[in-house]
Amino acid sequence: MAERFELRFSGAGGQGLITAGIILAEAASIIEGKNAVQSQSYGPEARGGASKSEVIISDEPIDYPKATVVDACLAMTQEAADKYANGIKEGGLLLLDSEFVSREPQGNFKTYKFPIMRTAKEEIGREIVANVVALGAMVALTDVVSRDAGLKAVLARVPKAFMELNEKAYNLGYDKVKELLQ
Question: What domains sit in the chain, N to C, each tagged with a CATH number?
Answer without folding.
Answer: 4-181 (3.40.920.10)
